[in-house]
Specification:
By secondary structure, the chain is α+β, with helices and mostly antiparallel strands. It is about 40% helix and about 15% strand. The protein is built from 11 helices and 8 strands. It has an 8-stranded mixed sheet. A hairpin with an 8-residue loop joins strand 7 and strand 8. Helix 8 packs antiparallel against helix 9.
């Protein structure tokens, strides 16, 4: 997993660099532009002040080995008006010390209570345990939480953290999750909802008639490896985003959402996933990245069939939770 950026179904967790911190100290609105996202009116979140920024900057100057072990900006890809918005910061408090790291999070008020903190911290915990040096992840919550702060404890409980006993901080409770508890949850890729496995000859309902022949042709292609398929998806999104800068009719928002559906399906593939299911997922993804469907993805409505195909496969495989609602 990348030290620079982590992606979840709804979020991008962008590692704060020295440039990010210097810009944030100078002008918060410039930080939004650097991140390619809006800053909400309630920015900054609690505990993300000048002192914390300067402390982070000092740590980042220690060198590349510390990248990823401090602050990350949590960017909601689809905020108001379907534009990305920075909803808070999450992070760790440095590289492992005696096998332990500390988890932190602070969201602006408008984006609490939506499961976003849980989603962000789950990805960060997985990233931390990906380093064999990490044996335990700690977190702290107020010993006497104010109204509204009890949610932090509920988030940690959802993530499998338990009371870790006496805390070195008099005003805080300590929570912990061990590597053994994390490993018992199974591989990271298997923590997403499972795919259904309809019979191989069960037709995929909902594919537009004009798309059926191309979908069947793509279904017959040799299977590609996961990394190649993801590279194709992300490369196509990058091309569409570049085109959208000069052409307001290019729907880069829908392109990113189709990519989310396709990558969500790829995330759910496990060793036991039948080959025909893998082929259906690949065919949907390839339908998105190829221009063989006859309609250019850079024209008005050019992505409508791509989205319909991806949605049809997601529903067919029992992942209606992934379906794009932008059509």
């Amino acid at each position: 997993m990348s030290a620079r950026r982590l992606s979840t179904p709804r979020l991008d967790l962008v590692t704060a660099t020295a440039q990010h911190v210097l810009v944030a100290l100078e002008d918060a609105q410039k930080l939004g532009r650097l991140l390619g996202a809006e800053l909400p009116p309630s920015w900054p979140p609690p505990r993300h002040d000048e002192a914390s920024l300067r402390a982070t900057l000092a740590q980042l100057h220690r060198g590349p080995a510390h990248i990823g072990w401090w602050t990350r900006y949590a960017v909601l890809r689809r905020g108001p008006d379907d534009r990305p918005v920075v909803i808070g910061v999450v992070g760790l408090q440095g590289r492992p010390q005696d096998g332990a790291v500390e988890l932190t999070a602070s969201l602006v008020p408008d984006y609490r209570g939506r499961g976003l903190a849980t989603e962000a911290l789950r990805a960060l915990v997985d990233w931390a345990f990906d380093d064999e040096e990490v044996a335990t992840v700690h977190a702290f919550t107020p010993a006497e939480p104010l109204v509204g702060e009890r949610a932090a404890a509920r988030v940690l409980e959802k993530l499998g953290f338990v009371d870790a006993g006496p805390s070195p901080r008099a005003d805080a409770l300590r929570w912990a999750k061990t590597r053994a508890a994390w490993a018992a949850e199974g591989p990271v890729a298997r923590r997403v909802p499972k795919l259904a496995s309809p019979a191989a000859d069960a037709p995929v309902a909902g594919i537009p008639g004009v798309a059926r022949a191309i979908f069947d042709k793509l279904y017959a292609e040799p299977l590609l490896d996961d990394a190649t398929m993801r590279a194709q998806i992300r490369g196509h999104v990058a091309r569409i985003e570049a085109a959208a800068k000069d052409n307001p009719y290019v729907d880069d928002i829908l392109a990113r959402d189709i990519a989310r559906v396709c990558e969500g399906l790829l995330d759910a593939v496990v060793d036991s996933t039948p080959q025909w299911v893998r082929r259906q997922i690949q065919a949907a993804s390839r339908y998105f990245v190829t221009e063989e469907d006859g309609d250019s993805d850079l024209e008005i409505g050019g992505l409508d069939e791509d989205a319909a195909v991806a949605n049809a496969v997601a529903r067919h495989l029992g992942r209606g939770d992934l379906v794009s609602d932008l059509l």
